[in-house]
Design goal:
Number of helices: 9
CATH class of the largest domain: Alpha Beta
CATH superfamily of the largest domain: NAD(P)-binding Rossmann-like Domain
Keywords: NAD, Oxidoreductase, Pyruvate
CATH topology of the largest domain: Rossmann fold
GO molecular function: NAD binding; oxidoreductase activity
InterPro entries: D-isomer_DH_NAD-bd, NAD(P)-bd_dom_sf
CATH architecture of the largest domain: 3-Layer(aba) Sandwich
Largest sheet: 7 strands, parallel
Helix content: 25-40%
Oligomer: single chain
Shape: elongated
Pfam families: 2-Hacid_dh_C
Protein name: Glyoxylate/hydroxypyruvate reductase A
Strand content: 15-25%
Radius of gyration: 21 Å
Distance between the termini: 28 Å
Strand order of the largest sheet: 8-7-6-9-10-11-12
Order of helices and strands: EHEEEHEHHEHEEHEHEHEEH
Bound molecules: NADPH dihydro-nicotinamide-adenine-dinucleotide phosphate
Length: 309
């Protein structure tokens, strides 16, 4: 068995080593621009360069080293008609829950303001926010969104969720589809975007939709930069309608300099770290799925190309 590996960061040695340990029957071939590659059975990649597509001609399945499929689905019909299999959690869900809980609590407990006060040498107790006014709305109730919802519930925030298809979750007010979006947004104080990037969700959070959030709302985006119309968000933060945002993802990454987000103190920037791929856990999951495919068994997390996730 031959596995074609591409790593955009160029760090391939630990991947080759872990595959050798967990799937000794496989030979891992590291993809290199211009090199002649013998046909491979499986591909392991995330953001493949254009030149790699021709080398996918013989694979039986494409494994993504991330949870999102947008970086490969952009190639559309140029991709072979084989299963594209994304990571299902693989250690990312708990990281998302940590990141989102941190920013929800930071805003709820006004810790961002206390940090600013402390730098100015000010000792002053601010009025507490009321928890019942602090509904947290999670867009995307999938592997990552549900783990975050589970983490938020014990704090006692009113939690709501929005998904494509209708769901029922104990203790969570659920909304779905375009029909449920207005009501979801208008009652959400902290909006958390955990959606896949698809034609339906790109630019979803534009001026009109962000304006539906109540005055003083806060945005946490851990999904993809293209969900948010950046100039619209900036204008609403500057106008005070949106109190602030914690952004982990951006239209252009690394976030270029200059960019107005860098200079806006109410916008917190992190460099796409809310959930990192955990190599060994991911390889273990991929190896299990390769073994299942070799035995003709079904596998989870196959991307539905028509849905876009
Ligand atoms: P899942 O596929 O498990 O869940 C996706 C959720 O989004 C589902 O609840 C789905 O609805 C919902 N959804 C999809 N399209 C729509 C729509 N048009 N309207 C309403 N809801 C919709 O994905 P994961 O939870 O595993 O991952 C989510 C995303 O997180 C990834 O696609 C990726 O972009 C991002 N991500 C970001 C990372 C980072 O470091 N910043 C790391 C990892 C992932 P339904 O339940 O009806 O199917």
């Amino acid at each position: 068995m031959r596995i074609l590996l591409h790593r955009a960061d160029g760090v391939t040695e630990p991947w080759v080593r872990d595959f050798a340990e967990l799937l000794p029957e496989a030979e891992v071939v590291v993809w290199q621009e211009g090199a002649s590659i013998a046909p491979c059975d499986y591909a392991v990649l995330w953001m493949p360069p254009d030149g790699l597509l021709a080398d996918l001609a013989h694979v039986k399945a494409i494994f993504l080293t991330g949870a999102g499929a947008d970086a490969i689905l952009k190639y559309g019909d140029a991709l072979p008609p084989v299963p594209i299999i994304r990571l299902g959690d693989a250690g990312m869900a708990i990281q998302m829950a940590e990141y989102v809980s941190h920013y929800v609590l930071r805003y709820f407990r006004r810790l961002d303001e206390y940090e600013k006060q402390a730098r100015a040498g000010s000792w002053a107790q601010l009025p507490q926010h009321r928890k019942e006014d602090f509904s947290v709305g999670v867009m995307g109730m999938g592997a990552l969104g549900m783990r975050t919802i589970e983490a938020l519930l014990p704090f006692g925030f009113p939690v709501r969720g929005w998904s494509r298809t209708a769901r029922q979750v104990d203790g969570v007010q659920c909304f779905s589809g375009a029909d449920g979006l207005d009501e979801f947004l208008s009652g959400t104080r902290v909006l958390v975007c955990m959606l896949p990037l698809t034609p339906d969700t790109a630019n979803l959070l534009d001026r009109a939709r962000l304006s539906q959030l109540p005055q003083g709302a806060y945005l946490i985006n851990v999904a993809r930069g293209a969900h948010v119309a950046e100039p619209d968000l900036l204008a609403l933060v500057r106008s005070g309608h949106i109190a602030g945002a914690a952004l982990d993802v951006f239209r252009n990454e690394p976030l270029p300099a200059p960019h107005p987000f860098w200079d806006e103190p109410r916008i917190t920037i992190t460099p796409h770290i809310s959930a990192l791929t955990i190599r060994t856990e991911s390889i273990r999951q991929m190896v299990g799925k390769i073994r299942a495919l070799e035995n003709g068994e079904p596998v989870a997390d196959v991307v539905d190309r028509t849905r876009g996730y």
